[in-house]
Prior knowledge:
The structure is a homodimer.
Chain A: H1 2-13, H2 15-27, E1 30-31, H3 32-38, H4 43-55, E2 59-64, E3 67-72, H5 78-87, H6 89-105
Helix pairs in contact in A: 1-4, 2-4, 5-6
Chain A binds a DNA duplex through helix 3 and helix 4.
Amino acid sequence: MQRSVEIVFKALADPTRRGIFERLTRDGEHTVHALTQAGRVSQPMVSKHLAALKRARLVRGCRRGRETHYSARQEALAPLVDWVGHYGVFWQSKMDRLEDVLERMDK
Amino acid sequence: MQRSVEIVFKALADPTRRGIFERLTRDGEHTVHALTQAGRVSQPMVSKHLAALKRARLVRGCRRGRETHYSARQEALAPLVDWVGHYGVFWQSKMDRLEDVLERMDK
DNA sequence: ACAAACAATAACCGTGTGGTTATGGTCTCG
DNA sequence: CGAGACCATAACCACACGGTTATTGTTTGT
């Protein structure tokens, strides 16, 4: 619980990692090679960052032959959203109203 | 812009800092002394963490005599919320609907 | 079968950062 | 005035972390 908040926050605190996540979100699946080309860091570093994002479940990689394809898992942002909902009361009021509305919409 | 996202994420990535912010959010204004008592970290460290939170505008301190009273500024979570809205498309759809609803509610 | 491509790991390095104790600067109060 | 409370800063230390190059293990194409 608290653990995942910790891991997600830490994972997204690094700009390079955020950049990778943002790119995977915008452009979809990418191989390590592709991410290395675009980025300004070496391939091993990309792999390391991907490992960190994977630990936070922010990213999922599937090996396909000799290349690994990574894609973003936006659901993994849930701990972040929950945290804001808990401790950012200003935003919580908005979220609460959202919950109500969504509930009513589903009926 | 990007800068504030960076600073806010980094500030909240540390568990001690998150703890301080959470406490200030729950229990309201506190002096450095009070925060030191509760925490298991030394007073200078509390001051340092408060300085970091202050740089992120997550916290505001006002000197009152010889003690400084700190309180949380939840509005400073905005960059975080915006970022999630931007890159967490899953959550963005919810947020968009929220925006619409709130707009209609205000009329 | 072999060379090259792709990704992960290892080994290493500099620095950023969380932590400490010690010190200094104000303010309060007897 | 002087002692002590409160906070910030300094000086310092250990280590986690972002970065690199070198290496290894698979897989692919010819």
